[in-house]
């Protein structure tokens, strides 16, 4: 039998991909199989709907593209906005109303959410260590609730667990929590009553304690709190599902602080493409040995603070890596967003494609 020279095999292979040897380096980052390649077996996504593997592939590609082109989709309502407070003597007083609200998770999907002050997540509470805090909680829900200050060193009576440290806050009642803010770090507040339902339905928010001495903070240019949730409203990042999630933005040379908080029932390994994350704190506590990773496993209740320093500009996918929380034959959904990294000021004009433009358009 005649042997086929390896070089010939390689040329045939490259030709089948629609690229010559010159194009190999550029195309290696994004090789798409040629559209005219014979399909040996139908793709599972074809489902026999069209009787044609090619049409099935085109259908799936079109659904993916439509989802990506819809991003970032406008929806009503934005959670996690700063919660205002007033001073009463030396106390910072926050007012939280637990109330039902219509919440648009993604375009066309409006759910009945349980909320703090009408948004999911609730507003972000931000104080300084040592602040005397009072939170006045009014329950306008049709059921009882209570708020737990997750990660904070409260007096036991303010821990927010019905039956353990307080009675449930019944519908129509108002309850007051008082404590001194500590320790420094990324914390949370959420329901501790029928919590699997109430927290996933929206009774959750970030509670951030900053140090008195800000020189103790790591150096960063901007920050972003990313609250993960799952349950009856689906997989969400800050209360929104792709394509309604918010893109993160930064510039080359800058450092971004991301505060992850998992309020869901499942673990979510968050994966950032193209650059490492430096994990500097767990549950608000600075790590003695920060470490680099591109995927950080985040269990329910966990908080991780990470610093991001981009390696290359571009539009970098950023998603939960339990893939059925993020992508299906219908396209991307749920826990997906992007980190847009603009070139450094004065650098060449950016080309920031949402989809890879190699192969079909350039071959
Ligand atoms: Cu996930």
What does this protein look like?
The strands form five sheets. A six-stranded mixed beta sheet has the order 11-10-13-18-15-16, with no helix packed on it. Strands 1, 2, 3, 5 and 7 form a five-stranded mixed beta sheet that branches. The chain has 363 residues and is mainly beta. It is globular, with a radius of gyration of 25 Å. Bound molecules: copper (II) ion. Copper (II) ion binds next to loops. The site of copper (II) ion (CU) has 5 residues, from loops.
Share of β-strand residues: 35-45%
Alpha carbon gap, first and last residue? 35 Å
Instruction: Report the helical percentage.
Output: 10-25%
Low-confidence stretches: 1-51, 354-363
Number of strands: 22
List bound small molecules. copper (II) ion
Q: Largest beta sheet: what is the strand line-up?
A: 11-10-13-18-15-16
Structural class: mainly beta
Q: What sort of overall outline do the alpha carbons produce when their principal axes are compared?
A: globular
What is shown here, in short?
This protein is 10% helix and 36% strand.
Question: What structural keywords apply?
Answer:
single chain, 363 residues, mainly beta, 4 helices, disordered N terminus, binds copper (II) ion
List the helices and strands and how they pair.
Elements (H helix, E strand, L loop, with lengths): L5 H11 L7 H4 L25 H18 L15 E3 L2 E16 L2 E8 L8 E4 L3 E8 L7 E4 L23 E7 L4 E7 L3 H4 L5 E7 L11 E8 L6 E2 L10 E4 L4 E7 L7 E3 L4 E6 L2 E9 L1 E2 L6 E6 L5 E7 L6 E2 L2 E2 L3 E7 L21
Parallel strand pairs: 2-5, 4-9, 10-13, 12-22
Antiparallel strand pairs: 1-2, 2-3, 5-7, 6-8, 8-9, 10-11, 13-18, 14-17, 14-19, 15-16, 15-18, 19-22, 20-21
Copper (II) ion binds next to loops.
